[in-house]
Amino acid sequence: MERQKDFEFYRKEYRFFSYDGYTMDEYDDQLIITYGFTIDHLACFHPQWTIPLHGRTIDIHDPLLNRMVFALGMVEAISYWKITCAPLWHVKCGGLDAQAVQWFKKLAYYGLGEFFYINGIRTSYDDFVTIIPQNSLMPHYPDTHDYHGVMVPLGGGKDSYVSAHILKQHHDIYAYIINDVKSALHAKDVLKLKDDHTLHVHRTLDPTMLQLNQNGYLNGHTPFSALVAFSSVLVGYIHHIPYIALSNESSANESTIKDEKINHQYSKSIEFESDFQWFNHTYLSDKIHYFSFLRPLNELQITALFTHFNDYLYDFRSCNVGSKQGVWCGHCAKCCFVAIMLAAFNDDVTITSIFDHDMLNDPTLWPLYRQLSGLDENKPFECVGTRAEVVAAITLALTRRDLNHLPYVLNQFKSMVLPIEQADALLHQHGELHHVPACFYHELSTAMKEAHLWTND
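Now predict its structure.
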């Protein structure tokens, strides 16, 4: 879709976007945060976040709490700014020093990389927006809380199952669930996580934004995992939980568009994780540690570990199309990706029964498999693994099947296998680029060795 003219028109018509402020209210053992954003001469917006307190007493005048709420609002604002991409963004409710201004500008630019690309919008880092804060004051606020436990954000996919399965054996863990997605609630029950250790957070979008989207204003992907980062630190502060263990893997670092820095998973990447760790420890809390527990692994290894556990094959769900119903749609890129990864370690009957659809024998899905494998240059805009991992999965899948009786998809791929040594190397590699604390790394390493994916060397 080519929307460059709309982009230029809106920027002239609606030059100013403002982050006006936020309010915090306690009601029915919940903290309700309401944000205020305005696009001058167009609309005002008031999205909300609702955070359970579970009996916790909070001081809504606590300056560090307010800093965390304010920072979450900066990320929430991106969804509303993108409606017209106003060239000037006024922050009227808090201070940002020069480094913080650049931090949020970088997040907005790369976090909206897919949005710009899909809409055919050409802009530059220097020109796309100027963030103008109320002031440049960001004093240090000490964190005096005592902390305990580990928070694990649950989405219902295999990755968060793997993290929770390992971590619950060693730690007092809290499930973090946004908007009670059906697959996440099911995961909490299957993993036998405690109700009083489940943090149900709700985020509501302003209906005016949804109406403007329907009316044809600019719309597209935003960096949702950045919202997870800021909101989880806020919830960790309220509930005194020091570790936030994400389930993002090394595969999230690969760009979706070949040879360009346009990544659907930008806010799941190691670059964002490193940036966020710096922001959190500089401006928020140096007692709360945000990291991805699975960052040393790739998607092939996570699928192998998940299959090794053999407890959740028929319970997990990763499909965004079917997320509200807690089902696999059987026709999207995510379903195809999960199916081809599972094929490396499971037979066709198992895969068909998981999806209730013969994913490897459906010719209509072939274009998606082409994109996933690198036969086409660009990957689907989905949370999927690298091209090399998909080819390695195909290689491993073919080694466990009769080459004379292959399902349609694998038969199409028969000529593009790797040498088995390369596929095995990917299956057993150690990712060096991560922020996993030593004790957590030891627990991950133990699980990998028990599954014979890492050696004891």
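Residues 389 and 396 are 10 Å apart (CA to CA).
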